Amino acid sequence: MKTTSPLSLILAVGLGASLAACSGSRDDLSPLGAAEGEIRATNTGSYNLHLEETLRFNPVQPGADPARGRALFGLAADSDTEDKSQALFEGPSVAFGGTVVSNQRTCFTCHRGLVVELGLPAAPLSASIDAGDALFTGIQADAQGDPDALGNLDELALIKYRPNRFNPQRGEDDPFRRVFFWRKSTRLINVAFGIGFLNDARGRTMFETDRGAVFSHTQSSDRRFDDLFSVQDGNDLEAFQFSQLSDPRLAALRDPSDPMFRVLARDPFYTVPVATRAQERGKRVFEKYCMTCHNVPNVFSNLSNIEPLGNGETDVQNPVFGPSVGRTFNVGVSERNRHGLRFTHHAGGGRFEPIVLPLVDEDGAVVPFEVTMDVGLAATTGRLQDVGRFKVPQLRRLARNAPYFHDNSAMTIEEVVDHFNSDFYNRSRDGRRFPIRLDHRQRADLIEFLRIL
Ligand code: HEC
Ligand code: HEC
């Protein structure tokens, strides 16, 4: 395993940042290295992350069946209505210590078909979803008596999450067991190009993410039932989700042997229908300021990765060892907490207690951190540097994907651009490294471009 001192990596990051910020030339800013015949990421590493050399994504497992995965997901063959018949994950379980009785929620409950890109419709949810739907009747699975949960669900389409709920190493009173988020249900379109899953990329593999979804949304206890979720179930669900692309041409990006792979990898905008001069100018603004992070060609998520053992070597005995695999950034959305969400522990009887996480700084010092916002990746890694870090979402069909950010805090594309153009972003941990200042014209052009993604 290669070790590099944190200091030299920090210096490398600083250098990469200043190059990206000062240069207007396409080559420096393209996610693809210039060398002939070679496809590389120019994105610079974070303090502890090993960089991925090539464009590659988690493959679907041999023998995986996407049609069965769709049925396990609770989606009917029409891709827009629910079919629960194979999707409830209930029955006798040795791991659970009894019989799991489903609350009737399926994956479809919160990822409601292709019409909403496998996410939730616009809030208020009660305007389009029946009060008797398991989304509402099963709410205690996630809410567990939290008095804010119903309002946050209906009015903001946010769901309560306790990321360490199923970690048997964390006792009931452990602040890491108590810490929680209010999160939007991520749209699963193009999830095939994600490296790290969930809004903060804490899900290292799709299998682990899907199994956690089954445990958490089916029932309200913190008990696991691993024996009701087989490897084949996970592989089939993954194959179904990885097949949900915004454009069938993107499939080539997952297969370096496809003749179109190189075309899509080399022209980041190959599938983007740029037609007007304003869109063309907006594309250049995007290249200059946004592709520092949104750098997967034609998809615009982030392609940097961590391989725990370096250089694409994965320990077969322990494929998911390592803190997290996705590259995450703090862009100031959590700190802004635009909806004024509450992050104290509901102790019952209308009492609320602060949650104080012992987070570890880079020098090893333990810092008590009182939670007043969504702490992002830090809730899982326990590291101070990971506070407020989130993964870089894909941007295709953006106009259909509102509202935006992990807490649904931007209602429109304009609000997203204004966030990145504001002090909320520019004073954030990563905004300071990659500043964005757009004038009136650049802002307007960028918005024109984002609309056609
Ligand atoms: C009660 C609502 C709800 C249900 C039911 C639900 N999800 Fe989700 N899903 C969410 C939320 C909320 C997030 C984001 C969570 C976070 O960031 O912590 C999410 C995120 C995900 C992600 C991460 C996507 C990405 O872009 O990284 C995957 C994969 C996923 N869900 C799969 C599933 C599967 C499979 C099921 C069924 C077993 C399921 N979900 C059931 C609400 C739900
Ligand atoms: C420093 C890295 C970084 C830069 C630079 C950056 N982004 Fe992002 N972007 C992110 C992260 C991280 C998120 C997720 C934030 C969250 O949900 O809290 C995000 C979220 C978004 C979203 C929300 C997508 C959704 O579905 O919710 C949009 C849209 C977006 N960015 C567009 C842009 C544009 C346009 C620019 C350039 C003006 C830009 N980004 C620059 C990292 C970056």
UniProtKB/TrEMBL annotation:
Concerning SUPFAM superfamilies, the annotation shows: Cytochrome c
Q: Which UniProt keywords apply?
A: Heme, Iron, Metal-binding, Signal
Q: Where is the signal peptide?
A: 1-20
Q: Does the keyword Iron apply?
A: yes
Among Gene3D superfamilies, the record links this protein to: Cytochrome c-like domain
Q: Where is the Cytochrome c domain?
A: 277-453
Q: Name one GO molecular function term.
A: heme binding
Instruction: State the name under which the record lists this protein.
Output: Cytochrome c domain-containing protein
Organism expressing this protein natively: Sorangium cellulosum (Polyangium cellulosum)
Taxonomy, top ranks, is:
Bacteria, Pseudomonadati, Myxococcota, Polyangia, Polyangiales
